[in-house]
Amino acid sequence: MEQPEPSTATLVAGALKGDEDAWSAIVHRYEGLVTAVARRHRLGAAEIDDVTQATWAQLVSHLERIREPACLPGWLATTAARESLRLIRGQGRERPVDVAEYELPSERRGPEAQVVAEDEHERLHAAVSRLPGRYRPLVDLLLTQETPSYAEIAVQLDLPVGSIGPMRARGCALLRRDASLAEDAQTRQLVHQ
């Protein structure tokens, strides 16, 4: 003969005494309710799991405050709804964005930017041509697209590798002092490395 299911009041009393079977029975009996409330808030599977876990954690913390055990289903539904809303509000602050959904600015520069870049480039090369003789070839090499290593520069310019860093620093310092380059972005990038 099948035993009747214990009442909610019996399960709550057992859970308050630390009966793990009573806790398991409460969870088994009401997990569908908690999950349904979270689903009504249109949450994803992971968020529903978070709401469910938070709801059960709230029950553990507040079980002794429940005066009328018959009201437990309503308490669980209210708590699950509050946890769902708390999660939704939190997502509003921190929502991952799929970059593919947005059009990123083009890598191409507009005509104004191209003119400014060309002007900066011309002024930089004019300033490099004014550098004292031994700095000019080194800075020219540093301005190439594929900047060679210090070992390659040493071979090309017939310099000791150890002298390249200090020469580069002095050459860049001379460029920083050149008034015609004061506001150039390209020069700032080169001389402040």
List keywords for this structure.
9 helices, mainly alpha
Describe this structure in words.
With 193 residues, the protein is mostly helical. Helix content is 66%, strand content 0%. It is built from nine helices and no strands. Helix 1 (8-16) packs across helix 2 and helix 2 crosses helix 4 (72-93). The model has no long low-confidence stretch (mean pLDDT 81).
Can you lay out the helices and strands and say which pair or pack?
Layout: H1 8-16, H2 20-40, H3 45-62, H4 72-93, H5 111-129, H6 136-142, H7 150-157, H8 161-177, H9 185-191
Helix pairs in contact: 1-2, 2-3, 2-4, 3-4, 8-9
Major sheet attributes: none
Give the count of helical stretches.
9
Quickly give the structural class.
mainly alpha
Q: Secondary-structure element sequence? A: HHHHHHHHH
- Alpha-carbon distance between the termini? 85 Å
Low-confidence stretches: none
Query: How much is the average pLDDT?
Result: 81
The strand count comes to: 0
Q: Mind telling me the C-alpha Rg?
A: 36 Å
Please estimate the helix content.
55-70%
Taken from the alpha-carbon principal axes, the silhouette is: rod-shaped
> Strand-residue fraction?
under 5%
Outline of the structure:
66% of the residues lie in helices and 0% in strands.
